[in-house]
Amino acid sequence: MTIVKEGLPFIIAPFIPAITLLFLNLGLIFTALSVVLLIITFFCIFFFRDPNIKITEGEDFILSPCNGTVMEVVENENEKVLRVFLSIFNVHLQRSPIDGFVRSVEHRDGKFLMAMNPKAFIENEQNIITIESKYGVFIVRQIAGFLARRCVSWVKEGDTLTKGQKIGLIKFSSQVDLHLPANMTIRVKKGDKIVSGKTIVGDIA
Predict the structure, then answer these.
(1) Is the C or the N end of the chain the one with fewer CB within 10 Å?
(2) CA dist., res. 67 & res. 198, Å (int)
(3) Which CATH topology does 61-203 take?
(4) Rounded to the nearest 5 degrees, what angle is found at the Cα of 43, between the Cα atoms of 38 and 46?
(5) What is the pLDDT of residues 153-188, one digit of tens each?
(6) What's residue 184's pLDDT?
């Protein structure tokens, strides 16, 4: 397991004063404060973890772009949408659900509504990563939440992606939406737990 580089400032910021206070030994109150700071440090290490996983291999299915809990599956004549909630305990890396290339990466400023709010996917700050594949267009939408104030994209327009490749990160609790072509078959349902790069969320029609 490694730590993503974006997490280092969040880890170092509480760790240095925690160790300093312990070293100075200024009394019980400061020792307690250092313990609290160390707890925050270890939580940030846990949150920004990048575990080693074996990507599920195959051609005829779609992988989950994130770790989390399925909030809903929306289907209409134009597309299917998988909405996923990421708690602060989930790995917050996003991965490509399909082989293809990045058609565009769009950042939209917005609000920071809680991920469970039905308007979050419309009004919240987000990154929209559009992936062109031989099976159609897929969109991974990184959506900021009440605690998640920053969506980070690690890819850019024109990049070639392989299924399961890391494409971004959302800092703290948040939401990820996966838009699929309407002819895809969804395997998961509301309440299911899914894992980025491992869980098969749909089948190629």
Answers:
(1) N
(2) 9
(3) Glucose Permease (Domain IIA) (2.70.70)
(4) 130
(5) 999 999 999 999 999 998 766 889 999 999 999 999
(6) 94
